[in-house]
Amino acid sequence: MEHRPGMTGQETNTAAAEAVSKPRIAVHKFASCDGCQLAFLNLGEDLLALMEMVDVVHFAEAGPVDPDAEVDFAFIEGSISTPADIERVKRIRERSRYVIAVGACATAGGLQALRNMADAGQWMRAVYAEPGNIKSLDTSTPVAQHIKVDLELWGCPVNGRQVLAAVRALLSGVAPAEEHDKVCLECKRRQSVCVMVAKGMPCMGPMTRTGCGALCPSFGRDCYGCYGPAENSNTDSLTRRFEGLGLLPDAVARRFLSINNGAPAFNDAGRKLRE
Amino acid sequence: MSRCWRGWRARELLEGRDYFEVLELVARICGICPVAYQMSAVQAIEAIFKIDPGDWVRAMRRVFYCGEWIQSHSLHIHLLAAPDFLGYENVAQVAQAFPDEVRRGLRLQALGNSLIRLFGARSVHPVGARVGGFHQAPALEQVAQVVGQLRAAVADAEALVRWTAALELPDDEQPFTSVALRHANDYPMEGGRLVSSTGLDIGIEDYEQHFREFQVPHSTALHALHHDEPYLVGPLARLNLNHDRLPDAVAALFRETGIGFPSGNMFHSIVARAVEIHLAVLEALRLLQDYATTDAPYVEVTPTAGIGVGCTEAPRGVLWHRYEFDQAGRVIKARIVPPTSQNQARIEQDLGRSLQAFGLDRSDAELRHRGETVIRNYDPCISCATHFLRLHIDRDSS
């Protein structure tokens, strides 16, 4: 078991007793780019307000380091990609009332889950001269594959609105609202021009979970599915539409096998095209 | 020391991808500096396709990049470094003692994010950049709003430079080689030649002849050497090699601090970051104040086969990309050398030296704090997990 550097067990207990009235929060990082932690760090004044309202006991990126602390809410960014990750994520579960997986890496394994479909040993040899020194799993998997997860926030990256809404709901003791709608609905509400209809672009909007604000079509370009599959995604239909726009099967497969390639709906659709 | 799992992606995850997918994928290597990854990649790809995106795109890319420097440096100074130098554990504690200074930092960070959003819709993994330019030109009223923010930020940036220069920083001169880009006229950001404090002056396509990456048993991060020696990239290296390229107003304020450059004191890195925020605010203001929108925010592209190199100055230093494309514009091979892997050997050299100079007879807690502070001078890519030091001390009892 790891201890916080420079702090004895006794000091940790005293700190816990002082903060007994405030909910305790931890933000953990696994294999990821840190972009989802920025959803917190870019909150500006709201970040300081949040740090007043709750006791942030572990958030290495923002200062506090105490990875083994008992907390009410543990936010997890990143995918599970090493044997040590599996042990660590289990310890987090044991010490946390609620576990919230944040971002495409934690909810679907991330872009790096592409290695689940390849010969990992071959990749390793291509990068490292002596792959024997590298302790890594052959797979990159979502947190929920290893422990019970209470809430998933999808997106690459998640944004401040999503994490604040989740924190507010959790602090008020209500179930956070999950976003299952498709990007198309949000795009219509924004009154953006449909890039698939108007420009013939292979937009992933009809299949992608909402929450980003339909940003890509608002910039005149196609959605690339960074929020993962929406509920009841009809991937076969979209595949036919993309082929109708002139995309070859492998190009369509790459649309699915991208940022959220590990999400089952996208993974199945992509694999089917490659068979 | 650190765990860099990204070596995977950089090389193998791009192969077989279309050129237009590359910017979205490489952004995911770093959530703190996605713009840098997009800009090094786009430079390499446009070199292969022999595209000149024109003056408007070039200027706006520099503004986009200024946003990332401001955002990343502000985050580093206030959330990571300030607690070290002021003796607090985290930014919330600093905010109680220095509320105005922390608010100023958060305002600057927000400004950086606004600049990125102007061109990318969001500040983390922005969606606006494309090969040939940008998907969309920002509207006049959006630019006017950000220009207002920039004007107000000039005083904040000036105050920040003075504040960091007045911090009680350890005095620890040491010899090291600085490596950075150098541009004919401008402070280096999105292009230039590669130069070093030991006389190197090469085109970016010759990088591999002078720099070597290798594996070490104790780390998953590849290390890099320049002519078999560790070297420094990042804000201090840039300033050491390019202080004569600072705009007059930035240079004047910088002289006022009394810090002589080139500096061999790694603790001056925090001042270098503040100076670069000042520079980036003024540069963005210069390039946006007479902004004219365009109905051609990008040039059309015809894919061709070839090899191309891109190199820009990420907030943490030189970020070098090389791509090989087939006739259809698909990736055959990709190589990415990020700044933190280049600094890795230098960090380890510095750590050993600094702790000895600090005095190994001190307590574990003091040694750990000094060690963390030394490492943080390099602002190691936080995605590589170098947040706190797991210190293992074998004390000789004799």
What report would you give on this structure?
The complex is a heterodimer of chains A (275) and B (398). By secondary structure, chain A is an alpha/beta fold. Helix content of chain A is 39%, strand content 10%. Chain A folds into two domains: 164 residues, 3-Layer(aba) Sandwich (Rossmann fold), CATH 3.40.50; 92 residues, no CATH class. In chain A, strands 2-1-3-4-5 form a five-stranded parallel beta sheet, with helices on both faces. In chain A, α4 links the parallel β3 and β4. The N terminus of chain A is likely disordered. Chain B has a three-stranded antiparallel beta sheet with strand order 3-4-5, covered by helices on one side. In chain B, strands 8-9-10 form a three-stranded antiparallel beta sheet. In chain B, β4 and β5 form a beta hairpin. In chain B, α2 packs antiparallel against α3, α6 runs antiparallel to α7 and α7 packs antiparallel against α11. Chain B is globular. The two termini of chain B are 29 Å apart. The N terminus of chain B is likely disordered.
Compact description:
The complex is a heterodimer of chains A (275) and B (398). Chain A has 275 residues and is of the alpha/beta class.
Which terms summarize this structure?
heterodimer, A: 275 residues, alpha/beta, Rossmann fold, 2 domains, 5-stranded parallel beta sheet, 10% strand, globular, disordered N terminus, B: 398 residues, mainly alpha, Cytochrome-c3 Hydrogenase, chain B, 3-stranded antiparallel beta sheet, 13 helices
